[in-house]
Protein: NAD(P)-binding protein
Amino acid sequence: MASPNEFAPADSFKNRTVIVTGGAGSIGRPLCLAFASAGANVVVNDLGGDISGSGSSPSPASDVVAEIKLAGGSAVADTHSVADAAAILSTALETFGRIDIIVNNAGITRFGPLEAQPPENFTDVFAVNAAAPLALLHHAWPHFQAQSYGRVINFASDSIFGMANSLPYVLARGATFGATRTLALEGAPHGILVNAVCPTSYSRMMAPMFKDLPPEHQAATEKNYRGEANVPMILALAHEACAVSGQVFSTGGYGMSRVMLGATSAVGNCRTMGEVQRRLPELLEKEREFVEPMNVYEFASFRTRTLQS
Structure:
């Protein structure tokens, strides 16, 4: 693992307070260490459960805090469930007096095909991966507004492109895409920037997807996709110098790419089922004009224009 102080200069986050949910995991731990080494006050939130959200132990969060303090950093452990958003924020405010950055890293998953997934799997995963981050932001938002400053990094997933046997997870992470765009719009007048990352890390959550691969493939994946390789992008999005908002980035392996949501120009005057069937291939042409709207207003303008042309 790279040394935490290799990721950013020592005073990059001086006097800033950051909450990292899932702060003891494969991405959370190196991220917390990096923030602390760069001068931040770190709230290490981690329930200590397994990948399904079951069980709890105070040890993982406390262990990360002990590691930070041993290196001279500032941190506090928080073992509340991410569903207890008000309590997590209270830990930050009572310990450090302010909140500047929130990294919504915590997540759980349930594996299996649709027919094997009981309905509660969807609600349980959605509650942790999508609803809980929004609850935490709900409580933090007035503080961000009052100080005209805030940085939010949500966690989405490359699985939104489609991934079999992981529907509860994909559902929740897909929702994060639209929520990030919406929060960016609401935060803009107040100096609050909201972005998302789709990280790749060989973790407890990811391991079951590779269990049927040959051992050498598993070893290569584990070697090349370490949690810390996602840290530089997250730090950049959390920094005061960040100027982008409403964007979603794919990270991992010390690389980055931008994830886009687009719409093609409309095909109009389709008044019957037969007309839709006849013109559907035209709509699916890869060369068709398209746009990447950053909000529904840009989309509506583009659609209206193309319908009228």
